[in-house]
Amino acid sequence: MNKPVDLPLSRVSDEENSNTSNNPSFASVLDARLSRRSLLRGGVGTAATALFGSFGLAACGGGSDGDAAPAEKALGFTAVPKSLADVVSVPAGYSVSILYALGDPLTANTPAYKNDGTDTDFENRAGDHHDGMEWFGLSATGTPSNTATDRGLIGMNHEATTDERLSSFFLHANGGTSTLPRPAAEVDKEVAIHGVSVVEMKKDAAGKWGYVKDSAFNRRLTALTEVEVAGPARGDALLVTKYSPNGTLTRGTLNNCGTGKTPWNTLLTGEENWNGYFFRATGDDAARGNDKSVTSLRRYGKTEGSASRHGWETGGADDKYQRWNIARTGTSADGSDDYRNEMNGMGYVVEIDAYDKSKKARKRTALGRFAHESAAFSNPVAGQPLAVYQGDDARNEYIYKFVSSANWDPADANAADRMAVGDKYLNAGRLYAAKFNADGTGQWVELTLANAAISGYATYPFANQADVFVNARIAGDAVGATKMDRPEWCAVHPTTGEVYFTLTNNSNRRVDPSNAAQLVPDSANPRVYTDVKGTTNQQGNPNGHILRLKEGTGGAAALGFTWDVYLFGAESGAPAGTVNLSSLTADQDFSSPDGLVFSPSTGICWIQTDDGAYTDVTNCMMLAAVPGQVGDGAKKTLSYPRAGGTTLNVDTYVGKAATADTLKRFLVGPVGCEITGLCETPDGKALFVNIQHPGETTAMASIGDPTKYTSQWPGNAGYGAGRRPRSATIVITKNDGGRVGT
Ligand code: FEO
Ligand code: CA
Ligand code: CA
What we know:
Structural class: mainly beta
Number of helices: 10
Radius of gyration: 24 Å
Strand order of the largest sheet: 13-14-16-17-18-25-24-21-20
Strand content: 25-35%
Distance between the termini: 36 Å
Mean pLDDT: 92
Low-confidence stretches: 1-14, 24-70
Bound molecules: MU-OXO-diiron, calcium ion
Helix content: under 10%
Largest sheet: 9 strands, antiparallel
């Protein structure tokens, strides 16, 4: 099935491309050349030794094999071949078990999931489209534990749902209603399968993992759950709604994608493609007097007349449906009689205390409002600020960093009131956007009214600093941040502290742009090529890359960094000099990196894909990697012939090519899925992974005929009733009891 390479099916309608700002492209700074080598000299090498030393793994390719424990070798498994099979494939010597799937009951009284479209009560069941997740250990007595290996909570995102023409068709008996208005019962179900789960996992005496159906810790947050607005935008005029005239509350968390775990043991969840769920009627620009809110709405992908993904606003007169209609319908000056400001309540990193369901979730507005993926902390240093790295996943959007005003106090790691610690570190700080230079350096540019480029920005007059956080994309435009190839997850290397960002793909790169949305390649987003899928030419950067950066002076608070491209996604058979720049082999080749998590136990970098470009050859996958560090490769100049006979030369920096010992495919998922989210027990012996939207390529018209479902997983693996495909959490263990990935 052909589809746009940067729009996996679940997001065909919601991954917008609204960055039409005039930020300078890299082409204009290509002549700025400095000696990159001199910038990177120093420190390299000691980091690699520390990595392997601290994890006790054999230093595959790292030059110190003799130091490692002989019984355990990093990536000691046999690579899993690419596959189109409707199963989860892992290496020989490993086992997979399915733990927790869409609809599984979360209370003792909730009936088993029938999986035929008649189930209800999703507020007490697992949500759909499992995504990012984090582990929160529990002692035998049910208190928080950082060492427990047989019992814990998983805080997990339920990003979205498999849909076609408005309806989440696997959730409704006959596929549901694909025209407006949508029936209230269908809307209620769809609203409830979004959000977050907290679910208890436990290993029994025989060593078998399962989820605990009747755990008192189990919890669901949905797209309707009341959430506190926290940080600088709390109480701001931009957050005033009929539901919360003082701008301190909102309802729901939505399209939750990547996650993060704070150093004080709470869950961070990123709201990604939330804009698609709101409806704004034609004529609303004029109803708003074409004021600056129209500029903001457009920049966040909500032009007037844009339909909503599911038509939830048509569920009825009740306020819980009407809140999805964000047109100005009231007469108040401040928006307290309608939902014209409702979309300003979405797009944040949300903090949740997985251990305490009595605590309301809090939207951390200081971290900015955009299409959030993961939120990755710098390795905490006592007495220094904390950095939180973040990406904005849409074509041509930015990379961000938040730096806390408060300095890290290690005593806070074990505080009893975790949400209060969150208030301390996440409600006040500085937000920066990244600029990548052609010489391999970069700057963090603060998004502050103190910068005249922001306070004097003609396109959008910012009212105050809260406005800057709520409209972070516009502030990024104002300072000329670098437009990236869809920043997905980021993760911080546990010993080097270097920051890795997946840039999943971008169909809007062209050597000779033909419209305003297309950008020429630049140093940090250097590839433009054509990849063939069946008979379709996929253009731009169809396979994506993984960029990494090393902070300069100041560590987490640094204003400058150096960077390179750790890996370029590619087919192994693609041209080595222009596309397969990382020399990937058949055991390593991948496309569209998305999830990215470093194991705290083994240090292995797990890379997960959400791909539509290479899916004619293989289902989505997960690879295990042992990366080096920024600067371990070489400069490379890519030369592109342009119309008119000129040449565009783009300098980039390619990390050291992976070897069979440093990058290897570990898992391939069932048909139509993406692999996303990963957490593990502290001993590294149980690895939890999410299989999202298997069978997503199924046509709605096939409902009722399982033979036409493109996937029947996990029913075909013996899990649960029925054959409608279900997103699910799996656990992977090594048969010899060792750490996963060794
Ligand atoms: Fe939800 Fe950008 O992936
Ligand atoms: Ca191809
Ligand atoms: Ca993602």
